[in-house]
Fold these 2 entries.
Entry 1:
Amino acid sequence: MSINFEVGDVLPPLKHTATAMQLFRYSAVTWNPHRIHFDESYARDEGHAGLALHSHLRAALAMRCVTEGLGNDWQVAKFAYRLRRPVYAPADLAYTARVTTAEGDSLTLELIEETASADLGFEGTVWVNKTAGATP
Amino acid sequence: MSFMPDPGTPLATYYAETQPMVGAVLSLRNVGVLDAVTIGRYAMTIGATDPIHHDAAAARSAGYADVVAPPNLLAAIVEWGVGTPETGLQPDGTPNDGETPLGDPDLGLRVMGAGEEMELVNPVVAGTELMIESTLAAVTPKQTRTGPCVFVTTLNTFMSADGTVLNRNRRTVVLRNPLQES
């Protein structure tokens, strides 16, 4: 039986430490040669405070908060996000999703990324639908 | 009046060259077959442990034809196939492959991801032959707290070879001139 969600529900936060090793492997698997993600001296020459996390890695972690928090009875239909600041490895990050609308078999959630100093890293909105096979 | 980069600056040159291309299809490419190893490695790297990403039997019992990609895998892949030879990369390592126009390397602009809107139309499973159509959607100069910049948005439509739309992604990057940052 699937869990029903209501406006105001908050999914379990996803807490994650992004390391230089993770950034390297993310660059490798996405075949991303951008040096700001794996070449720290270059990144600093470009004005960064260290190795910059990929925006897509941050989005992927944020999506995990939603998909793992809702379970397989729900599917992401749409996701929109805007970066508010760069984040540098190693980084302790927390992702939180809160249900803002719940209508029929669809939910909308507001999603935020917070850094260890509680700065807003990015914010986004996720639209999900109950899967066809989900129990009511 | 909306913000415009100072005349004669690299950002102004970039804007003048790129803005007239808004609406143009930049590329339509067949990028080959998405394999199960790429999906499994991507899932492992982001910490997604659901077996639907690496175990075909688990994926099938969940209703998928094969292992299924985490939601933003297609958006995240920068180069498909073998990619650009090192000698063809820009000084910051980025390939200028036509998906997002990055300007002449001599302009010295720096690029970073700024955001994305992803419409996940159909599941993305291993064995899918992929096509990508990229359209230049917007080129917008802005003054930010760290200096002037230009936001560039491309609409990337990912399709299977039979034309079925998988993802419709509006990807925005920000281009800056490091010499104009505060």
Entry 2:
Amino acid sequence: MGAVAVFLETTDKSVRSTSLPALTAARELAKHHGGPVVAIVVGNGISGAAQDAARYADKVWTFDAPALKDPIAETWAPVLANAVKKLGATALVASATSTGKDVLPRAAALLEAGMASDITGVKGPKTFRRPTYAGNALTDVEVLTPIVVASVRQTEFAQAAPAASAGAVEAQDAGNVDPLGASFVSLHATKSVRPELTEAQVVVSGGRGMKTSENFKILEQLTDLLGGALGASRAAADAGLVPNDLQVGQTGKVVAPKLYIAVAISGAIQHLAGMKGSKVIVAINKDPEAPIFQVADYGLVANWEQAIPALIAEIKKIRS
Amino acid sequence: LKILVSCKRVPNPEQKLKFNSGAVDVSGASWQVNPFDEYAVETALRLTEKGKGGERSGEVVLVSIGPKDVGQQMRGLLAMGADRGILISGDDGTLDSDQVARTLRAVVEAEKPDLVVMGKQSVDGDSNQVGQLLAGYLGWPQATFLASIVLAADGKSATVTREVDAGVEEKKIPLPAVVTVDLRIIGKKAVRNAALAPDSAEWEDNQRYASLKGIMAAKKKEIKEVAAASLGVNAQPLVKTLHQEPPPARKAGVKVASVEELVAKLHTEAKVL
């Protein structure tokens, strides 16, 4: 078998930390495939990022062109597919970020390769474990095509560390890039001073029981005291209490922090799918029958109105 | 304006999953339409409407793959207002994403819609692939995870916003195209066809329910049954399911009586504070 290509998302200067778990998965897969790990970076003005990628991979192929500036699937998917063909790679992996989820299946179609989504484990050269049914079934799948494509659940693979020696960076020509008339207009990024939800050691999430956006401020206080990230249930996001990108669950972000604190969240199956992998789960809910208590290591039956200020005070006390 | 919407049935996600001989057992499942596919139907209907409850212009065609029973779920979507359905025979329990995408490609080539609207993922397989695969096979532009869509007055392009990890991305795509919808697409002002509906148009939050009139009308609407073999699709799966099992159960937790006890346990027992 051949090389393992790993698509890395980057800023101008460096590999995004969300892509580091894909490198770890690529290393595991390379043990089965026998070939090198080749990082693929795509964009415009990304020579710094390519150098950074070289710290992690055996080789870096960089596709750096004005026409590739924006992350659109119409241009990036063919670049990935062509790189895999030219390399003779037998695997293509990437983290299951929103970009990875958008681009990778399209690349798989162009390669006529089978794809396993959101893998949580590598079991062989072509076999993977992945969650299905909102994490209520663990499914082992075998990809039957000569080339395998897989997106990687970030929380299930460690962040890769730099290798002992840096790989070579090779600039590649993307050739004719056709966006098929599609264009990226703008990104309205949610500004946050807090760590990324998917990478935070502590996540504090609020549910619809928080009632108003104003009430989330006290959760922000708790979040900042713990140096964590703020999350929310789908019900809270749907009700407009918080921006949708805070949503944790089957259809939102998957998190696995050391400490997850669920406040006024009942614990719908689709929410549990996004946080069940957390090391320690704390649930605070006034309803003793709330399903969230079934997955919580520590449950406190209480109104958040009383419990959260008390919790903030108590944490400050033990820290002083 | 002709819009093709894919739909599939899923076991009720609130029901506890059963397992039998290393596989999920859906024999006793109660079936429903995949929630994201209902949102896709709502999106397509709004794109053919002059406003909430207003006149319609255009056609919404449903397509599903599965046994005849799936006709029940399709009938419900026809009752919401979709115009007709195509049901392709197949075992929806074993198809992989690629087989679905290849089959849909054949339907797109026969129906020639201006737009394909799909749910971003099914809540059973959770693969989140079919829309992207279909767009790739067709060589059409794609816009996944839509929070909103406005179809231009000339009907030649769409401006969309997409749910991405960092926030919301705006993208413009020419038609024909494939789009997949996320949760917020069913907001009041998330969907509009500028050729039909004014800027001020708004709908109810959430997908519509079928009215009694809609249910009666749906009985007369066509669901055309098509044999998969007649589409001439290479039906070899690319991904095979080997084994399924429930995840390990979390160790039973404890209830604490007070905030003080909670903090003490997190500090000294769990050592996370």
